[in-house]
UniProtKB/TrEMBL annotation:
It comes from Enterococcus diestrammenae. InterPro entries: Flavin_OxRdtase_Frp, Nitroreductase, Nitroreductase-like. Belongs to the flavin oxidoreductase frp family. Residues 10-165 form the Nitroreductase domain. This is Nitroreductase domain-containing protein. It comes from the Bacteria. Keywords: Flavoprotein, FMN, NADP, Oxidoreductase. The keyword Flavoprotein applies.
Amino acid sequence: MKETIKQLQDHRTYRHFDEDYQLSDEDLQQILDSARQAPTWMNGQLYSILVIKDQGLREKLVEWNPRNPHMLHSSVFLVFLADLKRTQKVAEQHQVPYHVGESIDPLLVATADAALALQNAVVAVEALGLGSVVVGSIRNNLKEVAELLHLPDYVFPVAGLSIGKPNVEMQVKPRLPEAAVVHYDTYQDYDYQLIEDYDETMRKFGEARETKDWTKKFSDVFSQEPSGQIDAYLKRQGLLK
């Protein structure tokens, strides 16, 4: 099996890092360069990357996300931003209207660009023999995070990435059955038993962090009334009317 394929299929998330390990400037640059070469819509590169080394900033992020102390204890913490501020500057320079916010499409494109850059960073981290964890909870306190990181309008934090040298080994987590995820030519329905089988697979996997079945976790998540926090933030930032 080719090494890159093996690396991708062996992916696992690490949340415990050697606090004495320091990521070298050279390795950090390799990760950033790899992220910046990710595919991007029309070469728009509608994202930015924040490299957060400052311990005070990271302590504040952990205060808002206490279940993710690795944001402080990892070697470096990156935040990937959907960034439509750069193209707003371009519109101003060319003295043309800027209709971002009138459709959700630009935000979806910018979010995809940021996510692709994030994935490239994850692959680069693992190629260097290190570990990482993607942090979606960076979106839990959007107003406060935006103020802390001085985010301008037209910018949205998509996810963070803790990077470091793992000191606790993790196992490769089972994924949903292929038949429930992969379709050929057209979307095809499948037996719901496949999803229930996955609950059983994850019970046997026995990850301590998972306190609910997969089906229960997501039925709980998507049955809650939305807080409206993200919608309010997007409107305030000019990303959504």
